[in-house]
Structures are given as C-alpha cells and as structure tokens.
Design brief:
Elements (H helix, E strand, L loop, with lengths): L1 H63 L4 H8 L6 E2 L17 E9 L5 E6 L5 E7 L4 E6 L7 E7 L1 H10 L8 E4 L4 E9 L6 H9 L2 E4 L22
Parallel strand pairs: 6-7
Antiparallel strand pairs: 1-2, 2-8, 3-6, 3-9, 4-5, 4-8
Length: about 240
C-alpha cells in the first residue's frame, strides 16, 4: 500500500535534477551571451576611444609644434617685402614638399592695421600664389591662368576691412583680386616654375621684384552730380 502511494511521486522527485540541470544550462548560456556582449561593447569602446585620441593628436600637432611652417617662415622672411626661399635640396627643405625646379618666395602679412597688397609681374612660365593662415592652412590659391593680365594684383583684407570696402566700392576694379582672410596674420607662398636651368635667374629676378606691403586705401571717388534741380516756386 505504501509503495502504491509513493509511486506517483517518484517521477516528480526524479525530474527535479533534470529541471535543475536545464536551469543551470540556461543560466550558463545567458551569462555566456552577456559576457560576449560585454566583450563586443568593450572592443567598440576601445576603437572609438583610439580614434578620438588619434584625431585629437593630429589636430593638436600644429598648436604644439615648435618647428611648424609659421616658425620657419618667420625665421627667414623679412618683415617687409618678399623673401626668396633657399633652393630646395632633397632632405634639407625649408618647408616639406618643395620642388627644386620651382623658385619660391614668401610674404608675411598683418591686417590688424591696414589691408595688404601683393603685386607680382609674371614671366611666361607657370606662377601661383597660395595664402596660408598662421597655422599653415591654405584658404585661397590662384595661378597665372586666372590672372587677367601679365601680373598678379591682389589685395587681402580681414572681415571688417572687407565690409568697409564693399560699402565704399560697390563696383570694384576687376583687374584687382580682393580676397578676405580668416585671420589677421598669415603668409603668402609664391611659386615660379623654372622650365630650364638657364631660366632660373630670370624667374628669381621676377620673384624678387614682387611688391608685398600694407597700404592705406584711397578715399572713394564721389559720384558725379549733375546740375542742381531748380527750387520749386512758392507760388505753385
């Protein structure tokens, strides 16, 4: 009789270990999935953090470098006028990437007091001028193909000077290229191609004749005014 009463519960008691094993298996799978997800998340965070550090380092290099383009230019350039850079020698360039077959001239400018002008007579070969900020970034470039004559005639202004210029000269001279600089201080790097070794003295002479200087803008020319209109008669 006792055995008959115990028989219905024997299956339940035996099934408890199997249920416990299934729960343990599910827990292991669950914790295993969570652990894998944590590893994936950790890997993603490491990659993102590495990218942020890499970008921040690249952006900070120009600010902390002691031998950047600006420091090298100011060591060589004269405060007024154009300065011819030494002939580029592989492994001993003043600036990286200079071509030995090109004559380079540089002008530094400061727009805090007045606009700046560059006038350069171009020989028949390729010429170009690139304008750089103090940090070395190029914000404008032009070559001989865009020139309207056989010379460059360029005026550089900051934002305040440009607003005043547009108000005073709504129809500026088309032969003078006027550009707006993002900051007051920077430099212009000029390039003149030497097509043959015998042409180098001619290109260097043309580069040395470049005019780089601050200037005082002339007062605007008043518009022509016709004869005064007759005053209206008080009888009308």
């Amino acid at each position: 009789m006792r055995d008959a009463l115990r028989m219905p519960f024997r299956g339940l008691r035996r099934s408890e270990p199997s249920l416990t094993g299934e729960l343990r298996t599910r827990r292991r799978r669950l914790f295993g999935d969570i652990g894998f997800a944590r590893l994936v998340l950790l890997a993603v965070l490491v990659v993102v953090l590495s990218a942020i550090v890499h970008i921040a380092t690249i952006l900070a290099i120009p600010h902390f470098a002691t031998r950047d383009a600006w420091s090298r230019i100011t060591e060589l350039a004269q405060p007024v006028g154009v300065t011819l850079l030494p002939r580029a020698v592989p492994g001993d360039e003043v600036l990286p990437g200079l071509d030995p077959a090109v004559v380079y001239g540089v002008c530094t400018y400061d727009l805090s007091e007045a606009p700046f002008a560059i006038v350069a007579a171009m020989p028949g070969d390729y010429w170009s001028i690139a304008f750089h900020t103090r940090g070395g970034a190029i914000f404008y470039a032009v070559n001989d193909e865009a020139a309207t004559s056989d010379r460059f005639d360029i005026e550089i202004r900051n934002a305040r000077q440009m607003r005043q210029f547009r108000l005073e000269y709504p129809d500026p001279d088309e032969e003078i290229l006027t550009i707006e600089a993002p900051s007051d201080v920077g430099f212009a790097l000029m390039r003149g191609l030497v097509s043959a070794p015998s042409e180098r003295p001619r290109v260097e002479a043309a580069m040395a004749a470049t005019v780089c200087e601050n200037f005082t803008p002339p007062p605007p020319v008043p518009e022509a005014v016709g004869p005064p209109l007759p005053r209206p008669s008080p009888l009308r």
